[in-house]
Amino acid sequence: MHLWIRERTLKFFESTLVHHLKTTTMKSNILGKFSLAILIMVWMVGNANGQKSSVLWKVSGNGLEKESYIFGTIHIICKSDFLMDERILSAFEKTDKLIMELDMSDPELQTKMQQVSINPNMKNIQGEMDEPMADALDEFLTKNYGAGLAQLGVLKPFVLSSMVLLKVLPCAEIESYEGFFTSKASEAGIPVSGLETVEFQVGIFDQIPQDLQLKELGKLLTDEESDKDLQNMMSAYLTEDIEAMDKVMNSEGMMSEYRSVLLDDRNKSWVPKMGEAMHNNSVFVAVGAGHLGGESGVISLLRKAGYSVDPVKQEEKIPALQN
To answer: What are the residue ranges spanned by the domains of the chain?
Structure first.
C-alpha cells in the first residue's frame, strides 16, 4: 500500500508516539509497522452497499460541462489483489481534479493525525476491558508490534482495531487506492482535495460508545468468522459485487447500529460538495465503495439531484479526450 510504503505518508502519527515510546523499551521500528492504522477503521466502514456490479461510475447531465467519475475503493487490500485496469486509469487521466475522503496531499495531515490518535490525558484503556480480552490483545500486540497494552493502550480503540486489521490480511505487502491516486495526481500536476477533515472522521468514533468499540475489537481477536468475513469482502470487491459487500459489512454489529453516522449522513453532506466541484471541471472522486449504493448512497443521491450516473464495466473503455 502506497500509504504504508512511501516515506511521507508512512508515518502519519509517528511523532505523536515518539515521546511516549522514549519512556518504554520498544524498538523504534515499531512506528513504521502501525503507521496509518488510525485511518483504516474509518475507511473500512465505507465498503458496503451497492448498485449493480461496478466500482467505477460516470456522472453526467444536470448542466455539467464535462463528465466526472466516482470510484469505489477498499482501503486496505493485498498488493497482489490491487484492482486497476485501463478503464479506471483512462477515467482518471481524463479528469482535472482528484477528490477523496481526506486530502492525502495535505502537508499538515501528519500533525493533525497525531493530535487525534491518543486517548484524552493519555488514558490507558486496558482497565476498561475484561481480563481475557485484555490478555488476548496484549499478546497479539506484543507478538505483532513488539509492545503490549502497557504501551499501546493509550491509543483509541478504533486505532487498535485498525492495527489488528493490518495483521489479518494474508500478505506482507498492502496497497492503497488513495495512495495510488494521490501519486498519480502529483505526477499529473492536478489538485487534490478532501470531502472531510481528519478531526471530523475521528469524531465519528467519539459518537460511538467505547464499550461497543471494544466489543468489536474483541471479535477481531477471538471470532474466527471475522477472518472469513474479511476474505468474503475482499472477494466481493474484486468481482465488483457491491451487493455481496453489503451483506458482509452491514449484517450486524456497530455498522448496522450506527449506519447513519458512519455512512448515510456523510453521503448526504458529500453530494453538494461533489456537485459544486463537478460543475465546471471533470473530477475523479475516490471514496469507500460502501458509500456508493443504497437509497442513501452517493449514486442514488446524485441521481435524485438530477445527474445521470452510469456504471462503467470492465469491458468498457473511456473515450480519449478530443482536441
So the answer is: 2-311
